[in-house]
Design brief:
Strand order of the largest sheet of chain A: 6-7-8-3-9-10-12-11
Order of helices and strands of chain A: EEEHEEHEHHHEHEHEEHHEE
Distance between the termini of chain A: 25 Å
Helix content of chain A: 25-40%
Strand content of chain B: 15-25%
Radius of gyration of chain A: 21 Å
Distance between the termini of chain B: 27 Å
Largest sheet of chain A: 8 strands, mixed
Helix content of chain B: 25-40%
Strand order of the largest sheet of chain B: 6-7-8-3-9-10-12-11
Number of strands of chain A: 12
Oligomer: heterodimer
Number of strands of chain B: 12
Structural class of chain B: alpha/beta
Number of helices of chain A: 9
Chain lengths: ~325, ~325
């Protein structure tokens, strides 16, 4: 299915190393490898899920794609053109194409602007011709906000309503690719369902492509056709959703799936047995990054870093077991 | 049941704030037996955390417990003197708070924070208490407990901090453990470690657990019974298996339908329309009537009673009450 589709964004060996103070007393600078050589493709019209635990670098990837962060290495080819090297002015023509919905609807809206102003801002910034208030009202209707919200302020709205505002703002310029960074994790379950349904409707209506960043496997499974699993700055497995759930390959993916508490009391299970915490991205183990928590490591895992390889069509894994 | 440890009757905790009176917990009843795990489920603002704080009388101004009884082994916690409740708090009934990141004191080592509880309640000397702290750290599964006692909270990860919180809560072998969203701030793989730990403790020490959460996956895996709360009221109570199989209250049904399920294929999620009403504009009659798909005329007029069915399950809904009559 996805093989016939056009590649919208091709991410190659993307890196983001932050310079941070080291642990020693002199505060010598060391590199925190938040994203350390990530490769993936996003096909036009699909929803790709990016899943991982906190600190694995998934949000950093999203921020680099919208150029809120300048990568320290690698390429991002958007419709064939490398957008990494572009300066602000050169990137401008892509900015409207690539938009982001932020995680926290409580801090991502300016408290001193009315809802109408917030949603209309991208339109004004882009100097769009036409009746901007009318366009904003249309957007508000699309995301299920009442028209009389136009002059109200963010504090008057609940989390779910605010997230709708964030969605409307991201859609204002008719983007192609929308980065959704944990769009529902701050919301209550009943509201979460409303927003997820809304996002699916909008995807269909405007043929959007989503990069859906989340830590919640069940949400990603529901929304995405393909899923990429991230661990400590690397993508360790990418596959179509069904393949990933039916035959997870990487020991980390398997552990993640086992650890999810299933909301069905008749299926009581032993929740995963993955030991330990995610190690710090400052002092990475020399071989495989997962080695400190892996139950199946081989000798070569200690010295040799595995590379992403295609095990079956469309199913990539980065592990020496395969 | 003879081994009832905690019985909450008509608990009312109101907050008197500038904008008006907020009935955060309004007429809540439940029982907890030894070895039982009761899950209190609801969305933010439903009153589940306030319920659990009320049990330990940890409600601060402008909040106040205005009515009801909380019977712990036959004695009413609400009528106890401050000294009495203090000897129970952290000793016989203890609590794991929601955020491990902010619940620990940053300027004391974790060893000192655990041993403080032991020194106060069990009157042990400092050295003995520290020794016990090491044992507890070992019990909650932290590697190198001897080293960990001398660590400050900032040196530990979120999962480790939450384990320390659990160690503090378990320091005096409590009879009842109240866990308020114990895993919400944690990653799934760490969450599963903590949940397994709680299961183990329940089996080993026979602790009764009140689990406050909004995560229905955690509820399904860990609890024996469920109480569902909505807008300060208990709307449904029953065994976990039965509630998941056959929810009686439309809100419970809506909640169960609205989660994306990992073991099922669905194209669209069923939703509960609207949002939780503001506590100042609660609807007359049933509090859920503004969002309910089965709403009838009577729902908008009169508040349904919290009735007990023949099966022992409890529910507050006119649909069920009507069927019964």
């Amino acid at each position: 299915m996805s093989t016939e589709k056009q590649v919208l964004l091709n991410v190659e060996d993307l890196k983001m190393h932050f310079q941070v103070k080291g642990d020693d007393a002199f505060g010598k600078k060391t590199a925190l490898k938040a994203v350390d050589g990530v490769n993936f493709k996003i096909y036009e019209g699909e929803a790709l899920g990016l899943v991982g635990e906190s600190g694995c670098g998934k949000t950093t990837v999203g921020k680099m794609i919208v150029k809120l962060l300048q990568p320290t290495g690698g390429n991002m080819l958007y419709r064939g053109e490398n957008i990494v090297g572009l300066n602000r002015r050169q990137f401008k023509k892509y900015r409207q194409d690539i938009q982001i919905i932020f995680q926290d609807p409580f801090s991502s809206l300016d408290p001193r602007q009315s809802i109408g102003k917030i949603i209309g801002e991208p339109l004004r910034a882009k100097k769009v011709k036409g009746n901007i208030p009318e366009m904003v009202k249309q957007l508000m209707e699309d995301v299920g906000l009442r028209q009389d919200s136009y002059t109200r302020y963010p504090h008057e709205f609940s989390g779910g309503q605010r997230q709708r505002v964030g969605v409307a703002r991201a859609l204002a310029l008719n983007p192609t690719l929308v980065i959704c960074d944990e769009p529902v994790s701050a919301l209550d379950v009943s509201i979460q369902a409303q927003i997820l349904n809304l996002m699916q409707d909008l995807q269909e209506k405007y043929q959007l492509t989503y990069l859906f960043i989340s830590h919640d496997m069940s949400v990603v499974k529901h929304m995405c056709e393909r899923i990429a699993i991230m661990y400590l700055g690397r993508i360790v497995e990418i596959a179509e959703t069904k393949a990933l759930f039916d035959s997870p390959l990487h020991p980390y993916t398997r552990a993640l799936l086992e650890a999810i508490p299933v909301p069905n009391p008749e299926l009581k299970k032993d929740l995963g047995t993955l030991k330990g915490d995610v190690p710090s991205p400052i002092n990475l183990p020399p071989g495989c990054r997962f080695i400190t928590r892996c139950s199946q490591c081989l000798d070569r895992c200690e010295t040799e870093e595995p590379q992403l390889k295609e095990v079956s069509p469309g199913h990539f894994v980065e592990c020496h077991l395969y | 049941m003879s081994d009832v440890m905690l019985e909450v009757k008509n608990l009312k905790t109101y907050f008197n704030i500038e904008e008006g009176l907020v009935p955060a917990v309004d007429d809540v009843d439940f029982q907890l037996s030894a070895r039982e795990t009761l899950a209190i489920v609801g969305e933010s603002g439903s009153g589940k955390s306030v319920t659990s704080l009320s049990i330990l009388r940890l409600i601060k101004e402008p909040g106040k417990i205005v009515g009801g009884n909380i019977m712990y082994l036959g004695k009413d916690i609400l009528k106890m003197k401050e000294k009495e409740i203090r000897s129970i708090r952290g000793n016989e009934i203890s609590m794991i708070f929601q955020e491990p990141m902010t619940s620990l004191n940053p300027v004391f080592t974790v060893g000192r924070q655990i041993s403080e509880v032991i020194m106060i309640h069990q009157k042990l000397k400092k050295q003995e208490a520290l020794q016990k702290a090491v044992e507890l750290i070992k019990l909650v599964g932290i590697p190198n407990p001897d080293k960990c006692v001398d660590n400050y909270p900032h040196q530990l990860s979120g999962g480790m901090k939450q384990r320390i919180m659990i160690a503090i809560a378990l320091a005096c072998n409590p009879k009842i453990l109240i866990a308020d969203e114990p895993t919400t701030a944690l990653d799934v793989t760490i969450q599963s470690q903590i949940l397994n730990l709680m299961k183990e403790l329940k089996e080993k020490l026979g602790t009764a657990i009140i689990l406050v959460t909004h995560d229905l996956g955690v509820v399904a895996q860990l609890s024996d019974n469920i109480m569902v709360m909505y807008a300060g009221k208990a709307v449904e109570y029953g065994p976990t298996l039965e509630i998941f199989k056959d929810p009686l209250h439309p809100y419970t049904e809506g909640l169960l339908n609205s989660i994306p399920k990992i073991d099922e294929e669905l194209n669209r999620l069923k939703i509960i329309r609207g949002t939780v009403p503001s506590p100042f504009q609660l609807p007359k009659g049933c509090k859920f009537s503004t969002r309910c798909d089965y709403v009838m005329d009577i729902c908008k007029e009169r508040e349904p009673e919290y009735i007990t069915l023949a099966s022992g399950r409890k529910v507050r809904c006119w649909k069920v009450t009507g069927d019964e009559e």
